[in-house]
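Troubleshooting: if your tokenizer reports a length mismatch, compare your output against this known-good record of 155 residues.
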Amino acid sequence: TRRSSDLATIDGKPVAAYSRAVPLTIVESPFIVNVEPIRQSFLLPAVETATSADSTEGSETAANADEGMDADFAVEITRQGGFTDTASVAVTGLPEGLTASVATVPEHENSVTITLTASRSLETGEYPIRFTGKATVNGREFSQDSQSVVIKILR
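Known-good structure output:
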């Protein structure tokens, strides 16, 4: 039964258009990436500059310039739709001076720890990053980002 609201009009005449049914398959994502904590602060010591009059102290400062701080992040993979394969997790959006380990969530497991390291030379400020999970599902690469995580550098 056709209603008048199902028809369009062109030049005042009713017009109906029909198309064949299109097969559509909706597949849920195989996993979702969650991270804790979603905000992390690093309190780094002030960067000292060496003076030419005190070369001993200057060399110690230079030697320690790359020492930074580490923070561990618990990355959870919420598996869906029977997905049980491995998923690699990397961090995207890292500023210069902030590095991260790369990890793989093994088959049938749901979590992994990733360590971020902030070098002492990292500029003060806030940096949004994301943790990205990747896996091959049915022969195709699937990628899923976590929520944004804010890294705050203080001195």
